[in-house]
Amino acid sequence: MSSAPSRSSSGPVAHALDAAASSVIAAIRELSAANPVVLIDGRSGAGKTSLATTLVSRWPLAGRVQLVALDSIYPGWDGLDAGVALAREQVLAPHARGLIGVWRRWDWEVGAPAEAHAVDPSLPLVVEGSGILTAETRQLGDVRVWLDSPMRSRRDRALARDGDAYRPHWDRWARQEAVHVGRDEPARLATHVFDVP
């Protein structure tokens, strides 16, 4: 699984994500916080990574913003829930308490944890990935985004991005996302919901 931006994001998709970024940026400005936390959820291929990288490039506050992609944390193709738990425990909860968080990158080729990364609690934070909006993470995110997009569009974008590495796992991953959506109702936990074509 890759956290690289989709090469196919243009036209209506790019327009929708740009409008979403503008709305989220306005919400960040309204917070008047030095280190706000933005959570971006949506099913695979919905545009989470593209929105997150756009936000980071257009960040409205002075200084650096940190970006954590759950694609770098999920422990394998059956690890959606486990990756969200790791992000909550190692990134979001320490950040909320003013403590340095430390998470380990999952090496998809080796199938094992790799190097560690620190998260500075004094800096803003964007966390993006399927499953990140839950009842437990809701209070840890100042701005919470749910991206909704048709399955066929999402699948086309995700497979254009990751190709044969993802194709055999699409259904397996989609089942975990469906469990998350049914159980956690992330759209109801979001402060912002955006439709992406």
Task: Walk me through the structure.
There is one protein chain. The chain has 197 residues and is α/β, with parallel strands linked by helices. It has one domain: Rossmann fold (3-Layer(aba) Sandwich). Helix content is 42%, strand content 20%. The protein contains 7 helices and 7 strands, in the order αβαβαβββαβαααβ. The protein has helices spanning 12-31, 48-57, 80-96, 135-138, 151-162, 170-184, 186-189; strands at residues 37-42, 66-69, 101-107, 112-119, 125-128, 143-148, 192-195. The protein has a 5-stranded parallel β-sheet with strand order 2-5-1-6-7. Strands 3-4 form a two-stranded antiparallel ribbon. Helix 1 (12-31) crosses helix 2 (48-57). The longest helix has 20 residues, at 12-31. The model is unreliable at 2-9 (pLDDT under 50).
Hey, roughly how much beta strand do the residues contain?
15-25%
| Secondary structure: helix percent | 40-55%
Here the CATH topology equals: Rossmann fold
Distance between the termini: 22 Å
Figure out the total of helices. 7
Going by CATH, the architecture would be: 3-Layer(aba) Sandwich
Q: What is the average per-residue confidence, as pLDDT, rounded to a whole number?
A: 94
Question: What's the SSE pattern?
Answer: HEHEHEEEHEHHHE
**Overall number of structural domains:** 1
CATH domain class name: Alpha Beta
Give the strand order of the largest sheet, numbering strands 1, 2, ... along the chain.
2-5-1-6-7
**Computed structural class:** alpha/beta
What would you call the shape? globular
Total E-strand runs: 7
Q: Please state the CA-atom Rg, rounded to the nearest Å.
A: 16 Å
- Give the uncertain stretches in residue-range form: 2-9
CATH superfamily: P-loop containing nucleotide triphosphate hydrolases
Largest sheet: 5 strands, parallel
